[in-house]
């Protein structure tokens, strides 16, 4: 058997119940992505520290020789499709997505402490996250989402509100959501311009939308979002 494709005893739970599996792992609600989980980190260390298989170098040398690795490649022939990795969540009846890179963690709902003479519809107040106070905002009000008593059909079997923590240029923002689906990947060419009659999340903050699970997901412009928050909330 080829040592290049030789199986290992390392656990691959992320491919079964993790972000590249069926998303059923209960730890995803805490760690957001498998790469943040200690099980994934431990598996990575085991992989790096294990001894190479017998004839490992010889087989790779033969493989590179057969495939012509190292030859000149015309940059014009390289694939240009860009993959977008996003966190999908629900506010009111709207399914929204933000680039996963802006998020630090998810937490259970926390008590929001209002700030005298500062709290308003967008700035709700302060929340305690792991012993540190952070600004809590209402993304629903910032996006001008319509408040409704109608609950849309859920994606998950169990639905519970959470708080998402995101960070940009040293500023941390916390906001509550009604439901989190998790992390999803899209190709950039799947992104569509929002139709003019699209009565959904404020189009000002939307880069476009994806069709996903028979739903429309608005892909939010995180740079514009952070810029607006800094202007409207920070002193």
TrEMBL record:
GO biological process, alphabetically ordered: chemotaxis; signal transduction
Protein's UniProt keywords contain Transferase: yes
InterPro entries per the UniProt record, alphabetical: CheW, CheW-like_dom_sf, CheW-lke_dom
Entry annotated with the keyword Lipoprotein: no
Compartments, as annotated in UniProt: Cytoplasm
Keywords: Cytoplasm, Kinase, Transferase
One Pfam family per UniProt: CheW
Highest rank taxon of the organism: Bacteria
GO molecular function: kinase activity
Any one GO CC term of the record: cytosol
Residues annotated as domain CheW-like: 83-231
The protein's name in its UniProt record: Chemotaxis protein CheW
Organism: Mastigocoleus testarum BC008
